[in-house]
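Q: Convert this sequence to structure tokens.
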Amino acid sequence: ICICLNQTGARFHGPIIGAGAYTPEKAEDLIEKGLIDAVAFGRDYIANPDLVARLQCKAKLNPQRPESFYGGGAEGYTDYPTL
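A:
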């Protein structure tokens, strides 16, 4: 990833936002190294509507339930527990 990101940063001068299977630790490391500017936590956010608070206090994240992500109903969108 780092080699590809180094090459991208050399050719593209806008913000680089990573997405897909990032852990908070991996995101923080790549941001600190200047390889990316931000990370999108889509699936983790669906499973943790209070994701920012959980990351700030290093709380355990709810497990994702991929089978409910795009069901069209409340399940998977509004039924995950918050802190």
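The chain has two domains: 1-40, 42-83.
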